[in-house]
Amino acid sequence: MASLDVAAQRSPAWDATFRAIPEARNIGEYVRIMSARPHHLGSPYGKQNAEWILARFKEWGWDAQIEIYDVLFPTPKERLVEMVAPTRFRLTLEEPAVAVDPTSSQKAEQLPSFNAYSIDGDVSGPLVYVNYGRPVDYEELDRRGISVKGAIVIARYGESWRGVKPKVAAERGAIGCLIYSDPRDDGYFVDGVFPDGPMRGKDGVQRGSVMDMPTYPGDPTTPGRGSTPGTTRLDLKEITTLTRIPVLPISYGDAQPLLAALSGDPAPINWRGNLPITYRIGPGPAQVHLKLAFDWSLKRAHNVIARLPGATYPDEWIVRGNHHDAWVNGAQDPASGMSAELEEARALGQLVKQGWRPQRTIVYAAWDGEEQGLLGSTEWVEQHEAELREKAAVYINTDGNGRGFLGVGGSHALEALVNAVAKEVEDPETHSSVWKRMQARAIVVGPPASRAEARNRPDLRIGALGSGSDYSAFLQHTGVPTLNLAYSGLDSSEGIYHSIYDDYYHFTKFLDSDFAYGRALAQTVGSLVIRLADADVLPFQFTNLADTAQTYVTEVQTLLKDRQTEVRELNRQIEEGVFTAMADPRRGLRQPVVDTVPPSINFSPLENAASALTQAAERYRQALDAARPRLTPDAIQALNKGLIQSERQLTDETGLPRRPWYRHLLYAPGYYTGYAVKTMPGVREAIEQKDYAEAEREVARVAAALSRETDLLNGLTRILEQGK
Ligand SMILES: [Zn+2]
Questions:
Q1: Ligand 1 centre from 263 Cα, in Å?
Q2: What is the pLDDT of residue 522?
Q3: Can you tell me the distance from the alpha carbon of 532 to that of 60, in angstroms, rounded to the nearest whole number?
Q4: Region 15-43: what's the mean pLDDT?
Q5: Helix residue ranges per DSSP H, 423-515
Q6: Please, are residues 249 and 179 in contact by the beta-carbon 8 Å criterion?
Q7: What is the rounded average pLDDT of the residues 507-532?
Q8: How far is the CA of 371 from the centre of ligand 1 (A)?
């Protein structure tokens, strides 16, 4: 019941009419066209795709244009990796064409395998295996007395975002970094390898950006502003988001001889992958020579921006985007999501022909340069920031799509709306609603607490957003309420992610092969867009936000309590002498040292602010329900003006500690996890980094943000009560 009353609609219900229009075969055709050739940022086919997308929007009745940016995108001039001792071996660094896969042979247009924003370098040193290369893995090395100072580290993909691996390695004194795909994580351990199965074979390589996105994404030379042609830029030396050491991704075919040449103790059990070797850490005797050189010129990015003007509230915008650039052919990432967006655009154009006029302005975007570091979307948001702050009501993002369950992350004020729409969209395989299928999964896979919630809470919970796609600048820099959606869970695109094999052949054989979930995605997102564009009062449900904030408060309190318990237990074990008693005298493990128990932190400002928000959200909900039938146009306008500013209250102009670009105080990508979200990041990361004074300061800032939201809602409630 909580879901539907916020999503009041005009009649006729245009979103129901809309849902009958998208066709799976159109989506398949768009995927085929866009993935026909490699189309990375700066490539001829990338530009051609942007022009093709522009022509489609125009054909379907949209007012569309291309907006260009010049952005730094280093591409490889030289890549050399060789083992020089104990034997000599030069790595192939090549992904070969596969006979049955026609586009895999387009070598002349393919970007080679590399990590973008690695610095140039020519380094030699002993090799050390560092598991996933997370801070916790280096703590294990410390206990073993192994240093990576002056070494080249080899980390496996997974668990942390790739850009975090060279960042932590450099902090630890390494001089170079290799990242490989272990078959345990996305190869034969999981399923058959391409072309017999969907997973990564011995020569497959995951390309990807290693820009320090948790500091700031977008063009590295113009932080905080649009990188329009001719603008002033930072020098290469002034940029803080390049890696400090050279880094290159490799296949497991190339990694295996290197790993097999390491000596020392066997690696801990959870460090072992699935290659037919004994995993050891080193250092050495394997010695590696890594040489990388890049072309550091600017490349041109082409964003396509299309509009349907709003009839009643032209200055309130519903923005929706997906990127169009890929690492290579990119049928899954991004064409599967971009194609759903295009089919929505065609269907919305049809509604206009049938007489529909959206009340609010709808802006559809096809971003360029996402793969390098969210370049197209970030530059556009930075350039248009003042206007977006005033007008952008919501941003909806998609990226690659697959088969299975609807996954949603985003602003929790939109949780009720997403639930309402998910109940209207039919799952193409089970023919129940996609909501029913989401609920079933939450019941089956969740822990007992979330199982009970999935059964009893009116709305299924949505996740919080960290980073990894084009929503970051909207949500975390500008405070625009955001949703990110995709279907997934019944297929796996992990095995071809960012390789030359992410193409039409693989997609139609192993993923959403009949594009039925592409159609479901278009139906889902299009319905959201129509409801947001047409609702009299923007359909935000703040009781869901308040409830989520309460859970975050409990989480950060539990985090501190768990730390205190851990440290007390460790200190007790040291006192009891258990480490000395357990030690293997033949293998020297370093003994842990007594640590300081974390002090208590005063969380009461946060607790008080969260409960005040809970009350304000409930009062607003009741006042809106009571007043809705009698609302005057003036009152509606005043309400929406306030509602557009609601997510902005959760941001702070000075940003997070040490990374001012990130202004949202509830959601941010983790400084040491990369894509994975940290909620109430200022408080949480300060506790994790053992800076308890900072944690206390951040408690006050988050509490102030929640109080601003409470004040805004109380103001809106007064408007509603006066309207009686
Ligand atoms: Zn993508």
A1: 38
A2: 98
A3: 21
A4: 98
A5: 434-445, 448-456, 472, 504-510
A6: yes
A7: 98
A8: 6
Q: Which residues surround ligand 1, an ion (CB under 5 A)?
A: 333-334, 399
Using CA atoms, how far apart are residues 311 and 372, in angstroms rounded to an integer? Answer: 37
Dihedral Cα 206, 211, 216, 221, nearest 10 deg = -130
Find the 399 Cα to ligand 1 centroid distance in Å: 5
Whole-model pTM: value is 0.96
Q: How many whole angstroms from 668 Cα to the centroid of ligand 1?
A: 19
Residues in the chain: 724
CA 336–ligand 1 middle distance (angstroms): 10
For residues 232 and 208, is the Cβ–Cβ distance under 8 A?
Answer: no
Counting DSSP H helices and E strands in the chain, the numbers are 24, 18
274 neighbors 183 (Cβ within 8 angstroms)? yes
What separation in Å is there between the alpha carbon of 469 and the centre of ligand 1?
A: 6
pLDDT at residue 10 tops 70? no
User: From ligand 1's centre to the CA of 402, what distance in Å?
Assistant: 12
Q: Both tokens of residue 138? A: 């280096």
- Cα(373) to centroid of ligand 1, in Å? 10
| 370 Cα: distance to centroid of ligand 1 (angstroms) | 7
Cα Rg, the chain, nearest whole Å:
26
The rounded Å distance from CA 149 to ligand 1 centre is: 35
Ligand 1 centre to CA of 502 (Å) is 11
500 Cα to the center of ligand 1, angstroms: 14
Region 200-205: mean pLDDT is 97
Distances (CA, A) of 248 to 179, 217, 285, 557: 6, 20, 21, 40
pLDDT of 373-406, one tens digit each?
999 999 999 999 999 999 999 999 999 999 999 9
d(CA 369, ligand 1 centre) in Å: 10
| In the predicted structure, residue 1 carries a pLDDT above the cut 50 | no
- Number of Cα atoms under 13 Å in the Cβ half of residue 63: 7
668 is written with which tokens? 């941010």
Q: In the chain, what is the straight-line distance between the N-terminal and C-terminal CA atoms, in Å?
A: 23
Rounded distance from Cα 509 to ligand 1 centre (Å) = 20
Distance 353 CA to ligand 1 centre (A): 32
pLDDT digits (tens, 9 = 90+) for 534-550: 999 999 999 999 999 99
What is the whole-number distance in angstroms between the Cα of residue 527 and the centre of ligand 1? 22
Give the tens place of pLDDT for each residue, 108-125.
999 999 999 999 999 999
Helix H segments across 593-691? 604-627, 633-644, 681-688
Q: Which of 352, 350, 324, 349 lies closest to 339, judged by CA?
A: 324
Q: Which of 61-75, 442-456, 593-607, 691-705 has the lowest mean pLDDT?
A: 442-456
591 near 580, Cβ under 8 Å? yes
Q: What is the whole-number distance in angstroms between the Cα of residue 374 and the centre of ligand 1? A: 9
Q: What percent of the chain has pLDDT over 70?
A: 98
Predicted confidence at residue 4, as pLDDT, reads: 39
CA 602–ligand 1 middle distance (angstroms):
41
